[in-house]
Amino acid sequence: MENMYVATQEIQISYADTDMMGVIYHANYIKWLELGRTRLIEDIGYDYMEMEKAGYYAPVYNLEITYEKPVKLGDRVFVKTWVDVNQGLRTVYGFQIVNGEGEVCAKGSTTHIVVRKENEKFKPVQFKKVFPEWFQKYEEIKRK
Amino acid sequence: MENMYVATQEIQISYADTDMMGVIYHANYIKWLELGRTRLIEDIGYDYMEMEKAGYYAPVYNLEITYEKPVKLGDRVFVKTWVDVNQGLRTVYGFQIVNGEGEVCAKGSTTHIVVRKENEKFKPVQFKKVFPEWFQKYEEIKRK
Amino acid sequence: MENMYVATQEIQISYADTDMMGVIYHANYIKWLELGRTRLIEDIGYDYMEMEKAGYYAPVYNLEITYEKPVKLGDRVFVKTWVDVNQGLRTVYGFQIVNGEGEVCAKGSTTHIVVRKENEKFKPVQFKKVFPEWFQKYEEIKRK
Amino acid sequence: MENMYVATQEIQISYADTDMMGVIYHANYIKWLELGRTRLIEDIGYDYMEMEKAGYYAPVYNLEITYEKPVKLGDRVFVKTWVDVNQGLRTVYGFQIVNGEGEVCAKGSTTHIVVRKENEKFKPVQFKKVFPEWFQKYEEIKRK
Question: CB contacts < 8 Å between A and D, how many?
């Protein structure tokens, strides 16, 4: 990877995550991504829950994932996460899901917006304006 | 079954619900139970979401389930639900999970309390006092 | 939409699908997509489970989804699914998730490959060769 | 607790596990229990996956849980697991779910049988006969 900061989070997988193909069910990878983002955010000194306490959510607006290799129960699983694009209205996180042998099992990106909790339609606000320091930190660690 | 009202709700199952045993993962049955309770409540003219809008939750306090026969993808699944015990502080719902051949795949009960939303410790209040008409309706339809 | 066949499947949502934002958790939409594909396949006279019984799986290779409007408990939810691209090695399904007011809540596509069950690495085979009639049917109904 | 061996497993919780009550959805606790049992089995030198490779499953036959205190995102969560009853046809595991302050959030038991993989009806076999050393180990560590 390039010159951005990459956070690594190991994932705890369980029997519940498998399906009748004998592998981890593909939609279950999606919830791991947020553990990866949480790790990234904590690594740089922030806390997603603080954003919620301040009256905002950061929902997923777009998600793209390519599955390259199945993950099985018993495999170790790690999510690597970085800031791919940092704009006023949108943050794009890149990710790789890697197994214990260092093989990439899946990769892709999630795009997030920031919305006020009380806005039921999830109309985006400027991340840059409501969390200027956090935005600045992303400027420093993002992929260049 | 006996002289109580029994609600029947068909369940939509999916590949996501299976596990590597090739059957529906046992913890996924639990979320079906609330679809069963929702059906029962609607059948008698109430709406659980109205309880939440009025400022209350009805969390599960106790759950007991016996698995008698595996459910597979492709099976039809129905949850039968009734009021087993209706007390001031606790409501016990009985249930059976039945397949398309009418075989009982699982059975058990869930016990619920009513709590005020703003009480973070989920201290119970009297269902009988906060929803007296609903409580009375349960008196009529409960198992005797 | 255009001249392709579009299958419509209503989805049963439950409390289990919600998250602490008060809406349906975004990863839960993903499992609905397979209910949409199952409906499409059944509408044209096939059965995904027959593919598995014949010794094959059709795992997701790529998934792309854009979330446009949150879905809440109490909303009706429908998945509309069609064949977007039908190639020898890849099938792309397009989808829209629509609420009871006909508003598009999410849209995107899933790309699938066909693999032999005994191939643990999920190396793709030609859908066109192993299921030639099914492939031909997709030629007829696909987006043109 | 008493004189039995108690295994402790920390659980990784995520946003996906929450519901619109703002707490962890009650059915999600159930999948933690198997992480607890896996820890216990590994602590004494066995591996559940070896049981499956040998041609057996150990499905849940009965589950009983009492919820005493809600778990929230941000809490640390631990599952404590022990062998409560060790009989020829049934193994009962006791459990407690404990938060970072050492408070019991939930407690109960799961009862398991052992079945041959090829027996689709999940007819139980004698754990004592098919895994005699494992059974003996449970005799040593069980609650007395």
Answer: 27
Query: Mean pLDDT throughout A114-141?
Result: 93
Structure tokens at A107: 């990769």
Which residues 2-41 of chain D have a CB within 8 Å of chain B? 21, 26-28, 30-31
**CA C57 to CA C114: how far, in whole Å?**
6
Q: What are C49's strand-pairing partners? A: none
DSSP code for A33:
H
Reported ipTM: 0.96
pLDDT at position C72 over 80: yes
- CA distance linking residue C114 with residue A17, whole number of Å: 22
Q: Which residues in chain D touch residue C73, judged by CB atoms under 8 angstroms apart?
A: 20
pTM of the predicted protein model = 0.95
Mean pLDDT of D63-84: 97
Q: Which residues contact B78 (CB under 8 A, 6 or more apart)?
A: B8, B9, B10, B11, B97, B98, B99
Give every CB contact of residue A15 below 8 A, 6+ residues apart in sequence: A73, B19, B20, B25, D31, D34
Task: Of C115, C111, C139, C141, give the one whose Cα is nearest residue C126.
Answer: C115
Query: How far apart are the C-alpha atoms of B122 and D82, rounded to whole Å?
Result: 28
Identify the band that residue D120 occupies on the pLDDT scale cut at 50, 70 and 90.
confident
Encode pLDDT of A9-31 as tens digits: 999 999 999 999 999 999 999 99
pLDDT interval class at C46 (50, 70, 90): very high
Q: If you measure CA to CA, which chain D residue comes closest to A33? A: D14
- Note the pLDDT of residue B120: 77
Q: Given A17, A19, A43, A75, which residue is catalytic?
A: A19
Report which of D32, D46, D37 is spatially closest to residue D7, judged by C-alpha positions: D37
Residue B61 to residue D67, Cβ atoms within 8 A:
yes
B73: Cβ contacts below 8 Å, ≥ 6 apart: A20, B13, B14, B15, B17, B18, B24, C49
Q: Enumerate neighbours of A (3 or more CB pairs within 8 A).
A: B, C, D
Length of chain B: 144
Nearest-CA distance A125 → chain C (Å):
15
Where b means 16+ CB within 10 Å and e means fewer, B118-141 reads eeeebebbebbeebeebbebbeeb
B19 contacts A16? CB cut-off 8 A:
yes
Q: What is the mean pLDDT of chain B?
A: 95
CA distance B82 to B7: 6
In this predicted model, what pLDDT tens digit does every residue of A90-122 receive, in sequence order?
999 999 999 999 999 999 999 999 999 988 788
Whole-number Å distance between alpha carbons of A64 and C91: 17
Main-chain phi, psi angles of D143, to 5 degrees: -65, 135
Cβ(C113)–Cβ(C90) below 8 Å: yes
